[in-house]
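Thread: quick sanity check before group meeting

JM: Hey all, I'm pulling together slides for Thursday and realized we never actually wrote out the predicted structure for the chain we discussed last week. Dropping the sequence here so it's in one place. If anyone has concerns about the input, flag it before I start.
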Amino acid sequence: MKRVVLIDGENLVYGLREILSTEKKRAPRSVINDLNIRGMFEELLEDNLPTQIIWFGARLRVYEHTHGIKEKSEAAVSIQSAFVSYLQRQKIIFNKVGYLRAREGEPCPKCGKKTWKLAEKGVDVGLAVAMLTEADKKTELVVVTSDTDLVPAFKAAKKNGAKLMHIGFESRPISALSQISHANRTITRPLINKHNG
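JM (edit): ok, ran it. Output follows.
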């Protein structure tokens, strides 16, 4: 049987930061920088079946609406470039889908100034399309996400005959995805710590 691991990238990063958070604040984004991602998932899968791993992330570009958003978007492009190389060394494919959108935030209640924010759009759609493209009776799809927008894609992939495994986070169990899947695994703090560094 063919196995493909599909990772909702930003969703995974958020989940890791949440699991590793302290009482005062969420763990920094850099928790992903030293993580043996392939090793972590191979341990979760508990067998030696060859595994293709695909990380889904947004296409990035530099926005020039303000000086601040230009700096943020330039930093995001630089960080992503280094991270893609890091994934490639672990034999993980980075699939650029969707895009990073710059949008104006709500005004500050004290000063009235609006700030610009960056937000991913369309990554979940790209992951859903990949699920349906890969789904057949000879394939196991392992999907790493907590995004319930993917419930229809899970159902369609299952209907197409794919074996489904959902990997979620101990900090946010998602029964809507787990109930559809044939098997489930959970990313925990001890597992992350074991493969970090």
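AS: nice. The CA atoms of residues 103 and 168 lie 29 Å apart. The radius of gyration is 18 Å.
JM: adding both to the slides.
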